[in-house]
């Protein structure tokens, strides 16, 4: 019985890590220019997201890539 519980807990831990990996946490000083494409990050974005490092376009691209990655992981864990 413990084996089933252990496997369920491992699966739950993996699913939690995958879910949290898609969340971006910003810390520190915001960048004036995007670290990916060097375009200027608007003042309002920097004010609303302290520590932001990417412009909205690069952030959307990264989010899209993360969703595809998470989908491929979930395909193998179900």
Q: Can you walk me through this structure?
A:
By secondary structure, the protein is mainly alpha-helical. It has a domain at 32-78. The chain is 62% helix and 0% strand. The chain is built from three helices and no strands. It has helices at residues 2-21, 43-48, 56-77. Helix 1 (2-21) runs antiparallel to helix 3. The longest helix has 22 residues, at 56-77. It is elongated and about 55 Å long. The model has no long low-confidence stretch (mean pLDDT 80).
CA distance, first residue to last residue:
20 Å
Give the overall silhouette. Answer: elongated
Estimated structural class: mainly alpha
Helix share bin: 55-70%
SSE pattern:
HHH
Query: How large is the share of residues in beta strands?
Result: under 5%
Q: What would the average pLDDT be, to the nearest integer?
A: 80
> Unreliable runs, pLDDT <50, ≥5 residues?
none
Radius of gyration: 17 Å
Number of helices, where a helix is a run of at least 4 consecutive DSSP H or I residues: 3
Beta strands, count: 0
The largest sheet is: none
Which descriptors apply to this entry?
78 residues; 62% helix; mainly alpha
Blueprint (SSEs and pairs):
Blueprint: H1 2-21, H2 43-48, H3 56-77
Helix pairs in contact: 1-3
Quick recap:
62% of the residues lie in helices and 0% in strands. With 78 residues, it is an all-alpha fold.
